[in-house]
Specification:
By secondary structure, the protein is α+β, with helices and mostly antiparallel strands. Helices cover about 15% and strands about 35% of the residues. It contains eleven helices and 39 strands. Strands 32-33-35-34-36-37-38-39 form an eight-stranded mixed sheet, with helices on both faces. Strands 3, 4, 5, 6 and 7 form a five-stranded antiparallel sheet that branches. The protein is globular, with a radius of gyration of 25 Å. The two termini are about 15 Å apart.
Amino acid sequence: MKLEPYPTARREDTVDILHDTPVPDPYRWLEDPDSPETKGWLLAQAELFGRQRGEQRFKSRIAELLRSGSVGAPAWRGGRHFFSRRTPDQEHAVYYVVEPDGTERALIDPMAIDPSGLTTLDAVQPDKEGRLLAYQISVGGDEESILYVIDVATGTRIEGPIDRCRYSPIAWLPGGEAFYYVRRLPSTEVPENETQFHRRVYLHRVGTSTEDDVMIFGEGLKMTNYYGVSVSRDGRWLQVSAHEGTAPRNDIWVADLTASPLDRPELRVVQEGVDAQVGLVFGRDGRLYVHTDRDASRGRVCVTDPTAPGFETWRDLIPEDPEAVLNDFAILDDLERPVMLVGWTRHAISEITVHDLETGERVGEVPTPGLGSIGSITERPEGGYEAWFGYTDNTTPPTVQRYDARTGETTLWAASPGAVEVPPVRASQVVYRSKDGTDVRMLVISPADDTPRPRPTILYGYGGFGLSMTPGYSASVLAWVEAGGVYAIANLRGGGEEGEDWHRAGMLGNKQNVFDDFHAAAEHLIATGVTTPEQLGISGGSNGGLLVGAALTQRPELYAAVVCSAPLLDMVRYEKFGLGATWNVEYGTAEDPEQFGWLLGYSPYHHVKEAVSYPATLFTVFQSDTRVHPLHAWKMCAALQHSSTGDRPVLLRNETEVGHGARSVSRTVDLSADTLTFLARHTGL
C-alpha cells in the first residue's frame, strides 16, 4: 500500500536544560489533549488510520475463540459462595451468589447497570458472613472505582456511591456493621496535579455518612503510598501495609482489636524501612503465617506468634526453593494431619505442593491439568479439606479445579461455559542467552503440523514491575498461529518469573538488560530459523509499550513491524502525567542526576533519529487512560512520522471512552483484529 503524506505536526524548538544536559521536546504541544491543534491532529490521524486499516482479517475468528467465556474461582462465606462467569454472548462477566441449596442468582451485571458496555466491575468483597457485598465500578475506562454495598439476599443497595476508592481494599469487621477501606483525600484538600495520590485508611460504619469516617492511618506519610488493609476472620487482628508507589517492598503493622478501639487501633510494627515484601495470614490455629521475600528472593513462608510478630521471631516453615517462586498458599485443617498447599511457578509454569502444616515437610503434590498457570488457591474461611484454584494454559480457557485433601484428587469444578473449537498448536519453552550471558526463557507457540521453515512471528514481552508472563488462553495468539504464524513470549528480566532478584535485574539502572533480553530473543528466533527480520513483528503494552519503543529505536533493522500499546515513551517527563509519580521506584526520577542519565539513555522519544528506515509501527492508545497518558504515543508518533524513511507506515489508533485496563469483549475483539491485521500485513502472513 502506498504511503500517504502524514498529518502536519509542527516542530517546536522547545529544549529543557536538565542537569546541564539539553533535552529537546519538539512535540511538547501534543501534551495538551484539549487544544484545537491537538484535536485537529488526532482527527487527521484517525482518518489516516481509517484509510490504511484495511479489512480486519482475524475479527470473526477472535470473536469465535472468545466465545469460550470465562469462570472465576469461588469465594466461600458461611453457606454461600460467590463467583464470576462470562457466557459466550456476554460483553462482561457477571458476579453471582450461590445459596446453600444451590440456587444461583446474578448480583452484579455491568451490562444491566449500563447497557452501553462502558461500565466495568473493578473489585468485589463479600462480608465475613456472606450477607453484604461491597463492590466497585468505574465508567469509560477511568478506573476511578465508585464503592457501593448491597444486601446479598435482596439486592438492595444500602451504601454508596462512595467516590475516590481506586485500588481500595475492603476489610470487613465481623457482623458486617463496619469496614476499613482506603480513600483518597478530596481534591479540594490537595494540589491540582496531585489528586490521583494522597490515600488514607478509614473506618466506615455501614449506614453512616462518610463525613463521619475516622481516619486511622496514612497522615504525614508519602503522597504516592498505596495501602493494604485486612481483618482476620475472627475479627481480632487488623493489619495495615504501605507500599511506596509500586516499590517491591512494604512496611506492615498489626493491631489487636480486642485490646484497642476500632477507631484508634494500636498498630505495632512488623516490618518498617526494610527492602523486602511481607504478607501476613492469621491462621485458625492461632499462628501467624508470613509470606516474604526477605532473605529469600524466590519467597518463603515463616510462622510466628501474632502477639510478637517481629522479624527476629520468624521461623521457616516452607524455605526458599532455588528454582521455583513461591506465590501463594492455603491451609486445609479438617484432616487428621493438617496440611498447607503451596503454589509455585517453576520457570513460569505453575505447580502446587502439599506440606505438613506443623513441620513444613513436603508430603505430596496436587495434580494439575497440564503445564499452565494457576490462579490463587482458595479454601473455606472456616477451614476444611477442600481447595479451589483457577487453571488455564495456551489451549484451555479458564477453568476452576477442586482439590480434595482426603482423597488427594483434583477434579474439574467449573469450566468456561462456551464450547469452542481450539486449533491444534505446539508450545515449547526454549532457553537462550542474553547479551551479558544470562539465560532467559521464552515460550514459543507454533502450528501443530509445523514443518520447520521461517514464518511470520510475533514476539511479545513485558519485563517490569515483577509481573510474570505465564501460559494462558489467548484468542489472538490462537488466531495468529492457526493462520500459520508463530507467537513467542519472552520471560525477560524485570518480570517475576525467577523471583525478586530477576525483577531487580531489570529495574532502575538495570533497565537496559530488559531491552537486551528482548533483542536476544529476536536474534534467537532468527538464528534458529523460526523467522527472519522481514517476518518479525513485536508487540507490547504499557511497560511493554516502553519495551517495544526502546526495541524499535535501538535495533530498527531487527524488526519489520511494531504494535506499541498504551506505552510510556517520554521517560524524562513520565512522572508528570497519570500515575507516573508512583513508578519512579521502578524506573528512577529525572530529578536525580544519575537516574536522569539512565532514563535519557533509553527514553524512546528522545532516540528517534532523522533519516532512519523504522519498522512499520502502530500505536494503540486509549483516551480515558488515567494510568499512562496517551500523549506518550502521540509525541512519539509525530517524531517517527517526521523522521522515518522508507515505505513502512507509522499509524495511530486512538480509542475513546476506554482506559488502560478492563473493557467489553467487542472492544477487545476490535483492538485485537486491528493489531493482528497490521502485523500480518507487514510480516507477510
